[in-house]
Amino acid sequence: MEEDPPIQQPAVTRTDVARGAGLAGLSRLGALIEALSQPLYTWLFGIPTYGLYVVLWGAVSLVTNFVHLSMPLALQREVPRQDEAGAHGAVKLALLIALVPTGLIALGVTFAAPEIATLFSAAPEDQAKLPQAVALFVWALPLWTFVEVATAAARARRAFGPEIRLRIFWEQIARIPFAIGFFALGVGSLGLMAAHLCSLAMTALLSIRLLGRYYDLGLLLRAPLPRRLVRDLLLSGLGLLPSNLARRFLIDGPPVALNLMLAGAGGAAAAGLFEIARKLSTVPLIVRQAFQYVLGPLSSAQAAADRGGIAALYHFASRVSTALVTPLAGLLIFAGVDVLSVYRPEAASALPLLLVLVGARAVEAIVGPASAIVEMIGHRVLPLVNAFIAIALWLGLAWWLVPREGPLGMAVATGLATIASTYAATIELQVSDRLNPFDRKLLQGLALALAGIALMAVAERLLHGPARFAVCFVTWAGTSWLTLRYGLGRDDRLALGGLSRRLRLV
């Protein structure tokens, strides 16, 4: 019997991208919730304990992204190309590849926890409980892996909205009452790890329902795994693995490396300070991540239908990213002192790190989701090249700067590595597909954004306290409106739908 042909995907429009990015942006607000919950965690448990927590979570995240062989990204590439049986088989295979090894690793680490705990630096009050923390927290590995694959499977169906409840409420907001509850019970440093594990377990359970909404669970169990499907999925995953690992190394690797390079409480505190700055720097990145999140599966589908149509989507995403991210980065830079004042007093040391990381994110945002497009339209070698550039530059700079500059050196290394790999992807798209994000509208929006940032710099010099923050905030809001109004074309603004009408952009 002949196999059913792959489902023909309709052409992707700017409205599809805007709608998907809006929903994905809401799901990425989990990063904003984390930035808001950080002060609470540092006040309850202290910066060294918070630093130890982010180091253990960073280690789990790095192992997850290595072991699952980029199956979440591979699903976004392969599911749109398959018929129903093939789509279900791809998800089944991705779950098997991801869950079996992570479960075995978690079991092994649990038994070897006392030996593994000696690798990490911790404050004296946390040192005694470190083996217990390692044995407990490693079970986040299979839970998080399942959540990653299940939500990616839904995203591969162009379903960006359902993750909102999972990513924001259960994964982020539910963690806050758990953390408060464990603190009230006097659990100590283990409380933050236990709270994370509880919220993650709830998210994993709800991810099963998410899978059932977009796939037939019975068919998922029975789906055949033909050799061609196994080969295509593995090749896609392995091809995307280097770039995915490079991206995660630049996110989760720095606090882990700081903890390993600096001894004792200093290593834990340095990791905590870096993570405070990194989480805050992620806030302006939400816009760019939302478009990158959406343009992965959409550009894969568009490339199959009409490769030339990607240019319009790329220009649209780059203009919106520039218009929104650049002014917001200026707000965080020039009101950074006020933002950090809600943390424990020692968090003020994170200000130089915040300036470096936010500045790097602003420079990165100008070229839009170039990396995602390179990965998803069929280039297999270029993501490997970009991953090598990012990791080699990060390792070299970190090895050179961290012993002398501590966490600030790590921030410089991370920022430069991120910019280098993103702009490498931009150059590659220009050479291979003649795709370029820069046009008159983007440059016009960038000029307006830089003018607004200059006004924020003046306010930061002349004002202090609440007045400084208020003026910077109002300037940011006005600049964002101007960049959207004059940095986007009319078709771009119409694609924003109801948001454009509410803000009177058209």
Key words describing this protein structure:
disordered N terminus, 506 residues, globular, mainly alpha
Give an overview in words.
- With 506 residues, the chain is mainly α.
- Helix content is 81%, strand content 0%.
- The protein is built from 24 helices and no strands.
- It has helices spanning 14-45, 47-67, 71-78, 84-111, 113-117, 124-127, 130-137, 140-155, 163-173, 175-184, 190-214, 217-222, 227-261, 264-305, 310-334, 336-340, 351-365, 370-376, 382-405, 407-433, 440-462, 465-487, 490-495, 498-502.
- α3 (71-78) packs parallel to α8 (140-155), α13 runs antiparallel to α20 (407-433) and α15 (310-334) packs antiparallel against α22.
- Mean pLDDT is 83; it is low at 1-12 and 296-305.
